[in-house]
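lol ok so funny story. i was supposed to be doing the assay writeup but got distracted and ended up predicting the structure for this chain instead. priorities right. anyway since i did it might as well share w the group, maybe its usefull for someone
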Amino acid sequence: MNASTQAPAQAAPATRLRLTRRGRIVFTAMAALPLAAGALALAVNGGVAAAGERGPGQSFEYLTIAAGQSLWQVAEDVAPTDDPRDVIAAIVDLNRLTSEAVQPGQRIALPAGLEQHAGTIDG
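and the output, tada:
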């Protein structure tokens, strides 16, 4: 055979990419994963911005918990005219306590602006 009588080589047919239902789910999940991770990071770090509201040079009064003393008693002593529940919530928030339970000898910071009863606050 000579070169002029040979059949031309056939070009490979162009194939179209087809995804199965499972493939579409995998690609969708891969695209959504970074978005979900970003949303989670923003949600977790949202509390950091609230903590920044306190001034960096702001000083606090500190109190050492006595044996048998509760946050309710502390709230009544340091702010006798305020609602103790609000004062306790402010103390828990300021000290980042996981509960309202305190231990004897524990030193806690008191929120600024509370009326303070003489003799209950450490220097």
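The radius of gyration is 33 Å. Residues 18-53 form one domain.
back to the writeup now i swear
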